[in-house]
Amino acid sequence: MPPETHFxxxxxxxxxxxxxxxxxxxxxxxxxxxxEPLGPNVILIFMDDLGYGDLSCYGALDIxxxxxxxxxxxxxxxxxxxxxxxxxxxxxxxILTGCxxxxxxxxEALFPASQIGLAKEEMTLAELLKQKNYSTGIFGKWHLGDxxxxxxxxxxxxxYLGIPYSNDMWPVNFDGLPAKPGTNKYRFxxxxxxxxxxxxxxxxxxxxQALLSGRLTDEAxxxxxxxxxxxxxxxxxxxxxxxxxxxxxxxRGKSKQGLYGDVIQELDHHVGRIMDALKTxxxxxxxxVIFTSDNGPWLNFGNHxxxxxxxxxxxxxxxxxxxxxxxxxxxxxxxxxGLISNQLASTIDLFPTISKLSGASLPDxxxxxxxxxxxxxxxxxxxxxxxxxxxxxxxxxxxxxRDNWKLVFEHPSRSYLDQEPGADGFPGAAPEQVIMKEALYxxxxxxxxxxxxxxxxxxxxxxxxxLADQARADLGDDLQNVAGKNNxxxxxxxx
Length: 495
Prior knowledge:
Arylsulfatase, C-terminal domain; 2 domains; ten-stranded mixed sheet; four-stranded antiparallel sheet
């Protein structure tokens, strides 16, 4: 080979090496924010009135939920997970803002034409994730104000398909026939199905109700596929198994637990469809799926209600049957598979946990949730939440909890005990003014809250009463006629 040619080749090699070095240095000097991995896609599936004992992986008998069970086996299952309040609107305000609902003025259940709603000044999960350019969609029940100014597109969501409040707020009787003039149901307007801001259909019959879960899931899957190349947040608050319940023809008669079991198994099927879509689109490893419920079962509906797995009372109470709910979180490759956490946690904790995992900044206003990400990483001995406040009925502090100790204060309550339940869609009695006496429960030994042990542990009672005093100073307590210093107002319909 001539010397000139050999020299030329060496020179070209050096030039290429220098170019490669310059390229590498330029890449390493890229701003850190551009090099950080994107946060996970987030899918939040929120059932309505699902009981703690309604899923196979939580001990259900004769109801089979293989898809939800698979979520649990591939992620983490919480056994001590609480709704923020055992009623529709309050629980939804809490999960979307990370606040006790009474802090932000949303308590109980809002009715059609409500004059209040979730204040636009409160940051929702959708608005939190908008900081990181997530696409956001809700497919299901909203129930945080049906005035146009409160609907999802004004609360950080890009898309909405669903109903504005509970599926029983319609002019249809419990038997599925049109409500008669003078009856309670007759006062309700037709139940609209809204796309974004416009009603596109009316839910008129139990057969329409039977198709709703499938329609909402179809829309959620469309949204997932549409946004698969950027981060997304899909909020799927199913209207069922809140009554009235109905299953589509494919699932009717398929379970050994009657229509209620059919509905749960159909909902499980739709969870499976979401999981299949993630797998097909290659999104399993960068998507966190959260499955939980707004509160426990509405027990006076008998065979159309769920199962508390032996916990006391149900929806509309601050006993464990009303507020302890299933919670499963899967994020393949990040959350170790097959974990079970027995630590105290709540729906309000999802907001700061998602904030931490996505890198989005928390709001300036005070929230009540606590980051659970250490538990999700597999540190099962981590105990971020030590206390919990059981507020209900506007702003009444009915109980407080520290670890497994729960002090219930004397208060009027709904009660299902010793009441004959209804059947086939009709409710039984559930008195609302039953006086519950003060009692201390050790939930580790007595999750059914049957045995008052305050006489044996006076120091625990004293400790919990101090916690209650601190809560009252912060949030108030109608039972004690105490106004809180840090409550915020709900949004009000503008005139």
